[in-house]
Amino acid sequence: MESLALAPLLARPVSEIIDPDRELAERFRTGDRDAFDQIVRRHQKGLWRLVRRYLRNDADAADVTQQVFVRAFKGLVSFRGQSSVRSWLYRIAINCSLSWIRDHRHETASEIAEDALTEAHPGPDRIAGSEDNAQLRAAIAQLPPKQKLVLELRVFDDLSFREVAELADCSENTAKVNFHYAVKRLRDILGGTRGD
Fold it and tell me: Which of 79, 65, 63, 70 is nearest to 26 (CA)?
């Protein structure tokens, strides 16, 4: 009986099982514009939250998120599929966010905005027991860039370590080590010396 339940999964290519957006990308490449709309609907909120953490206000985050989807629309025809569509979109979002920060450096600091930490998201509570969001924001801002990126992608975007490694341009083990040190450093900064 179990083998019958697995049959549909085994008949599908592994890439389809791993990346639920792969079929949509293929449909888009064959001219189905609605497939891209479905990709946008699936990922718009997560990408906006990611971009919002880099930028200081909602309007800028919305503009950059739109820019991400414009770039994705133009680039999806040449997407090679070496990563998941979601990882590819997140890489575009990180690059667009960093470009926006570079181009608007005089207007904003590249710290996490308070709104991004006060959302109904379980991530900050898992990192430290502190209810003081300003203190948490300041502590995260003190992390080295790679640790900060890995922590944010893992906690706030709920990405697997494999996906985090792709986006942080490191091995999966390096992503895990950076995450471990980021959490440890946050605990030290916040004065929480709880055991693991």
Answer: 79
pLDDT digits (tens, 9 = 90+) for 124-179: 444 444 355 777 778 888 888 888 889 988 888 888 888 888 888 889 999 999 99
- Look at the chain and report how many structural domains it folds into: 2
**What is the spatial distance between Cα 24 and Cα 163, in angstroms, rounded to a whole number?**
19
Domain ends where: 93, 110, 127? 110
Q: Are 83 and 148 members of one domain?
A: no
- Considering the entire predicted model, what is its pTM? 0.64
Task: Specify burial of residue 162 (Cβ count, 10 A radius: 0-12, 13-18, 19+).
Answer: middle
Put residue 158 in one of left, alpha, beta given phi > 0 → left and psi -120 to 50 → alpha.
Answer: left
Answer yes or no: is 196 within a domain: yes
65-82: per-residue pLDDT in tens?
999 999 999 998 888 888
- Sign of the Cα pseudo-torsion (141, 143, 144, 147, in order): negative
